[in-house]
Design brief:
This protein is of the alpha+beta class and 85 residues long. The chain contains three helices and three strands. Strands 1-2-3 form a three-stranded antiparallel sheet. Helix 2 packs across helix 3. The two termini are 16 Å apart.
């Protein structure tokens, strides 16, 4: 399944996530620090959404209350909640 998540409070504007058989198969950020978002995308590929949430939730960027990794975790939480409904 493919998901589109508009971010809030970060330099990135959106995250596109693809999950196949319960595993993250791709993540693409729109905007943000290109090298950092490419790194995040490469590191989470092949992991379960819950593993990524556990590792990235709560990470902050400077004085901001969130970050690109935290926004990815938030998006994944929403995806998992949607699947439970």
């Amino acid at each position: 399944m493919k998901y589109h998540y508009p971010t809030s409070g970060t330099c990135s504007r959106a995250i596109d996530i693809e999950i196949t058989d319960g595993v993250i198969s791709s993540v693409a950020f729109t905007g943000g620090c290109h090298g950092n978002t490419q790194g995040i995308s490469a590191l989470v590929k092949g992991q379960s959404p819950q593993q990524v949430i556990d590792r990235l939730k709560g990470i902050r960027c400077g004085a901001k209350s969130t970050s690109c990794p935290d926004q990815l975790a938030t998006a994944l939480e929403l995806i998992l909640a949607e699947k439970e409904e």
